[in-house]
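Thread: Modeling a multi-component assembly for a lab meeting

Hi all, long-time lurker, first post. My supervisor asked me to bring a structural picture of a complex we are working on to next week's group meeting, and I have zero experience with this. I have the sequence lines for every component (239 residues in total). Could someone generate the structure of the whole assembly? Inputs are pasted exactly as I received them:
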Amino acid sequence: MKFDVLTLFPEMFTPLKESIIGRAMKNGNIDISITNIRDFSKDKHKKVDDTPYGGGAGMVIRTDVVYDAYASVKTDGAKVIYLTPQGKTLDQKKVQELSKEKHIILLCGHYEGIDERVIDEIAPEEISIGDYVLTGGELPAMVLIDSVARYVEGVLNSDSIKEESFASGILEYPQYTRPETFKGREVPEILKSGHHENIEKWRRKKAIETTYQKRPDLLEKESFTKEEIEYIKNLKENK
Ligand code: ADE
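Re: Modeling a multi-component assembly
Sure thing. I ran the full set together rather than chain by chain. Output:
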């Protein structure tokens, strides 16, 4: 999968070179290319913004520089996304949907704002990462890349994907490793039993219990076995 990012702050994307996403790039599972919108300025001082028509504080990014940056990376069938607090909030379902794309172009806004006409012309899908306002679309673009890349073949091992929070609709069960005792807290006996079937059952119950305690709203959206429904009823009655 190819990601093209259009931004005025290319250096903000350095963290993507680390960890799992960095390894995925090195292995060729994903390709992330960062384009500096400023490189498309025709101004001798590389100016990209101007004062707003109608007056008011601040500056507005010009349509022509943004459009030319976009035109330089655009391919047929590319999915174009504009990161903005006005967009639809990103969730795991959307992440999974985007992971099926071949080429994603991410346009990062800036607190100054972009001339509306380039948004009208490109007609990108507008995505927000939550109901709060950031100084630009760079962190949201990184959040989107990180969450989507995880689903690209070869980036993670497929078991991690199967067991993770949200992908299965509910939260994950708790994990333990050595030491066996930490400040008087023991690793649950069952995990040392070697009985895989019982361990799986225990983990499923713990996942339901964790979801009930931390995100009960998720339980409403999921379907459960008869036995699990009984267990949830008990959790509710004993609270
Ligand atoms: N730009 C500024 N705030 C944002 C947000 N919450 N989501 C996406 N893009 C943004």
